[in-house]
C-alpha cells in the first residue's frame, strides 16, 4: 500500500515497508479477537511463519495498537463492545489514508454478511489462506526468520 500523504520528499512513492534512505521496517500483523484461543492460535501461526504479530482482545485495544503501524489488521467481525465493522469505521476516522488493510474473521457464513468494506475469512481459519493474505501485505523478505 502506498502512502497518499503529501510531503516534501518522495515518501508517498515508497512502499509501506521501505523507509526513506532505503531502510526497511519490520512487518507485523495486529490480530483482534475476543476469543482468547482463536487469537492466540492465529498469533502463534503467524509467528511460526516468521511474522511479528500482536494479539488484542477488543476494538478499543486495537485502536491503541494501530499507532504502531501494523501492515495488516485481522479483526473478528463479531465482538462485544466494538465489533469489527465499528472498529473499521473508527480506524478510518483516526488514521485516514494511513490506515492499514483490514481483513475480517467470522464464524458466520460470509455470504450472509452484507455491505462490508473489507475482505472476510471464515472461521475456523484455513491456515494456507491466512498465510497467503498475510504474505500479500507483509513481504516475505521482511518476515522475521526463526
H/E element sequence: EHEHEHEEH
CATH class: Alpha Beta
Q: Helical region count?
A: 4
Provide the helix percentage: 25-40%
Coarse structural class: alpha/beta
Strand order of the largest sheet: 2-1-3-4-5
Largest sheet: 5 strands, parallel
**CA radius of gyration:** 15 Å
The CATH topology label is: Rossmann fold
Share of residues in strands: 15-25%
Tally of domains: 1
CATH architecture, please? 3-Layer(aba) Sandwich
Name of the CATH superfamily: Response regulator
Shape: globular
In round numbers, the mean pLDDT is 79
Overall number of strands:
5
Q: Span between N and C termini?
A: 26 Å
Structural features, described:
This protein has 4 helices and 5 strands. With 146 residues, it is α/β, with parallel strands linked by helices. It has one domain: Rossmann fold (3-Layer(aba) Sandwich), CATH 3.40.50. Strands 2-1-3-4-5 form a 5-stranded parallel β-sheet, sandwiched between helices. α3 links the parallel β3 (72-76) and β4 (102-106). α2 (59-65) runs parallel beside α3. Residues 1-23 and 141-146 have low confidence and may be disordered.
Amino acid at each position: 500500500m502506498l502512502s497518499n500523504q503529501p510531503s516534501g520528499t518522495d515518501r508517498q512513492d515508497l512502499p509501506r515497508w521501505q523507509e526513506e534512505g532505503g531502510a526497511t521496517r519490520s512487518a507485523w500483523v495486529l490480530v483482534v479477537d475476543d476469543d482468547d484461543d482463536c487469537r492466540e492460535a492465529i498469533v502463534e501461526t503467524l509467528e511460526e511463519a516468521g511474522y511479528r504479530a500482536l494479539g488484542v482482545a477488543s476494538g478499543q485495544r486495537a485502536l491503541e495498537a494501530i499507532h504502531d503501524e501494523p501492515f495488516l489488521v485481522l479483526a473478528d467481525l463479531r465482538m462485544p463492545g466494538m465489533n469489527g465493522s465499528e472498529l473499521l469505521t473508527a480506524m478510518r476516522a483516526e488514521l485516514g489514508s494511513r490506515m492499514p488493510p483490514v481483513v475480517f474473521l467470522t464464524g458466520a457464513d460470509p455470504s450472509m454478511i452484507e455491505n462490508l468494506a473489507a475482505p472476510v475469512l471464515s472461521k475456523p481459519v484455513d491456515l494456507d489462506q491466512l498465510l497467503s493474505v498475510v504474505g500479500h501485505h507483509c513481504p516475505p523478505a521482511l518476515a522475521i526468520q526463526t
